[in-house]
Hints:
The protein is of the alpha+beta class. It folds into two domains: 1-66 and 165-177, Pseudouridine synthase I, catalytic domain, N-terminal subdomain (Alpha-Beta Plaits, 2-Layer Sandwich); 69-161, Alpha-L RNA-binding motif (Alpha-Beta Plaits, 2-Layer Sandwich). It is built from three helices and eleven strands. The strands form two sheets. Strands 1, 2, 3, 4, 7, 8, 9, 10 and 11 form a nine-stranded mixed β-sheet that branches. Strands 5-6 form a two-stranded antiparallel sheet. It is globular and about 45 Å long.
Amino acid sequence: MLIAFNKPYGVLCQFTDRSLPPRPTLAGFGLPTDVYAAGRLDHDSEGLLLLTDDGGLAHRLTDPRHKQPKTYWVQVEGEPSETQLRALREGVTLNDGPTRPARAARIEAPALWPRDPPVRFRKTVPDAWLALTISEGRNRQVRRMTAAVGLPTLRLVRVAIAEHGLDGLAPGEWREI
């Protein structure tokens, strides 16, 4: 079984949380009980999360050796220059080593659901949207890559993993693929 889930902002990619106060988890969305997340999204990231009951499939989707592309729409602070985009395309060096080259392009602001809480807005600081596709999955990698080129991430939405996409799922909705 493979499930596409649109993870809302602030939800943990696990079914339980032992912290106090407890934070929202996957348990609150009526997902089948025998699945687990194939990969992760930070609690402050949104979008496509795949869940499965098949360990081999989860491994193929998440292991960096399989180089499955993951595409994100990233709202960044600042106006991206061609030099910054080229740096992302060539790969940047992070504290845990260089990243693989990414596909990076400026895009128009996508039609997305409102985020709660909303992204802070500052009149004096421009922002822009990027489509960024990576083939790794390091901890907070996209955020660290954009920060490394001088474009801090304001909002991060994963829209695709390999051939699987959100395809109209609203936050908190899921479907079996």
